[in-house]
Amino acid sequence: MLACQRDKFFIPEDVAYLNCGYMAPNMKSVETAGIEGIRRKNLPFEITKDEFFEPLSKVKSLFAKIIHLNDPERVAIIPSVSYGIASVARNIKPKLYGNIVVAAEQFPSNYYAWKRFADTYDLQMRQVRPSEGPNRGQNWNEAILENIDSQTVLVAIGNIHWADGTKFDLSALREKTRQCGALLILDGTQSVGAMPFNINDVQPDALICASYKWLLGPYSIGLAYFSEAFDSGIPIEENWINRQGSDNFQGLVNYEDRYLPKARRYSVGEASNFVLLPMLGAAMEQILEWQPENIQAYAKNLSTPYIAQLQEMGASVEETQYRSHHLFGVRLGENFDLELLQNQFQKEKVYVSFRGNSVRISVNVFNHERDMEQLIACFEKAKMARAY
Fold this sequence. Notes:
Strand order of the largest sheet: 2-8-7-6-5-3-4
Low-confidence stretches: none
Distance between the termini: 44 Å
Strand content: 5-15%
Radius of gyration: 22 Å
Number of helices: 11
Largest sheet: 7 strands, mixed
């Protein structure tokens, strides 16, 4: 069983950082890789042609291992989720009187592009909302499936909902979208790295991930998987390194119309980032050593007893089978005053997020029991204060 890995991070002992869903802290190894990358550029005459390509291949291969992808050339380097989603949106066809299905209140980067697409082609945006009360996760999943029909162009969704960790049944979504001739576009930012994900089981048409959360990487770099559906697409940018023969620097004056095959055409310009790529590579090497299934198990073992305590205090948490263990939302009942709770968190150095009507708690391998005890103490004090 995976033990607490706090010694690999810089988090002070008196801080309960339960907010990896907001931004992961750098590991010490990731910081080292970044500093080395900065220093590398001090001597640009030592940077060889191969260094524009080999780190790219390494990072794509590491990501491919995390998602169990056999072909790393189906991975592109992107700067953000919005960039990856925009690349997808540029290369799909609408349906007459069609619709796009999304989960309500999902992350804006996986909404705005589809709203623009729907407005451009006069499509219906179907934002599927959860019902409140018992069986919320199950009912939400069923409602999403019911909204997919023969006129659905695509379903854009996360493996879990970013605000409260509600799990979506990707296998059922894949089956229904195939039946209806719709694409399945996934945002894996809040799950890939901390939850097991097998691309061969789900077979999405695209998987888009920012790296600065559960992949433990730096900001402004991410990874995207593109299926065969996008092999003939047009990228957002026309950058030189994504063309065939781009490794021949002397021959770059001979312009080339052909893109490199598969997903390589969709990589962002200057993808050969000499600082961010080594940082992301170091992060994913460590994740592969730990393995996402062990990270998820660690989060489950750590959080489960304390979730029971929150429920006993009158807070609401999604049923186990319909939520992730590394990220979950706590919906406050009448026993709690939100402002009092926020003040208590600040006083006790407990860091969480507030998303919609949920207190979002996200744990990783740098968290330990003391962090959770600090969290519970804040809820107890806020509840007691409310009583007076």
